[in-house]
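Could you help me review a protein record that somebody else here produced? This is what I was given.
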Amino acid sequence: MIQLILKICGGIVTVSAATVTIFKISKWTKNLIEGIRCQLRHNIVSTYYRHLDEKQLREYEFQEYTKSFAAYKALNGNSFIDKINDEVTKWKIVP
């Protein structure tokens, strides 16, 4: 009977440790995603303001911009960037 209780207690400890580990990984993942989202937002906004006066982008900059925008939206980025994207996609693309 005591061995059964010890096995049950051991199982509870194992499950508890696994739960804590999963919680830490989940929190770490959320923080990582938020950091990536911030970096993408920074890249998008920087590109926007750097080219706002001329309202044109080089082809490679536009490709990188669109990849950043797609990744940002895939990570549930906000609608502020949608407004910037609506404007940037109307700009002239130059070789």
Remarks:
- Residues 35 and 66 are 19 Å apart (CA to CA).
- The chain is about 80% helix and 5% strand.
